[in-house]
Write a sequence for this structure.
C-alpha cells in the first residue's frame, strides 16, 4: 500500500469490480486502451480477478483510490511496462500524475530495473504529456501494432531510465 497526499494506492480486490466496470465500459476512458470497452460485468470481473491473482505475488500494479473509492489503476501489470487508466470524471485534476509519481518511485525502489517503458497510442496527447512530465522520453514509433475492435492502432514508445542510472 502506498499513500500520497490525496490517494491510496493498493492491491486489487474482488469488490473493485463495480468501480472498474464504470471505467472499463466507458468508451471515453477506453478510447486509447488496448481493448474495446467492456460489454459485460463478467468481462470486468475476469479482468479484476486477473489483477487480484497477480497481487498475490510480486505485483507492481495498484488500484488508485480516492476517498475510499477506486477511480483507476496505475503501475506495471508486467515489468517493465507501465500504464494507467482513470475514470474520466477524475481527469485533469493531477491524480494520474500523483499516482504515477508514487508508483514509479516504488517500482524503482523494489525492483532491479534499468528502465520503465510505456506504449501509447500517438493520438493520446494527454497520456503522452503526462509521461513526458514524468521524465519519459520517446524512443521510437511503430505502425499497426494493436488491433482494438475493428481499428488498427499505432504506437509511440517511451522509456524512463532508473534515476541515477545513466
Amino acid at each position: 500500500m502506498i499513500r500520497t497526499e490525496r490517494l491510496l494506492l493498493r492491491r486489487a480486490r474482488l469488490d473493485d469490480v463495480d468501480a472498474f466496470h464504470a471505467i472499463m465500459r466507458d468508451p471515453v476512458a477506453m478510447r486509447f486502451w488496448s481493448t474495446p470497452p467492456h460489454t459485460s460485468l463478467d468481462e470486468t470481473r475476469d479482468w479484476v480477478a486477473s489483477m487480484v491473482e497477480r497481487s498475490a505475488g510480486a505485483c507492481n500494479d495498484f488500484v488508485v483510490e480516492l476517498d475510499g473509492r477506486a477511480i483507476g489503476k496505475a503501475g506495471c501489470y508486467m515489468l517493465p511496462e507501465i500504464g494507467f487508466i482513470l475514470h474520466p470524471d477524475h481527469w485533469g485534476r493531477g491524480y494520474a500524475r500523483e499516482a504515477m509519481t508514487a508508483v514509479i518511485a516504488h517500482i524503482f525502489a523494489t525492483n532491479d530495473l534499468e528502465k520503465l517503458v510505456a506504449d501509447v497510442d500517438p493520438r493520446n496527447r494527454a497520456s503522452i504529456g503526462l509521461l513526458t512530465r514524468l521524465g519519459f522520453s520517446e524512443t521510437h514509433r511503430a505502425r499497426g501494432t494493436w488491433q482494438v475492435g475493428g481499428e488498427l492502432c499505432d504506437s509511440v514508445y517511451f522509456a524512463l531510465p532508473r534515476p541515477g542510472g545513466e
The chain has one domain: 2-161. The chain has a mean pLDDT of 92.
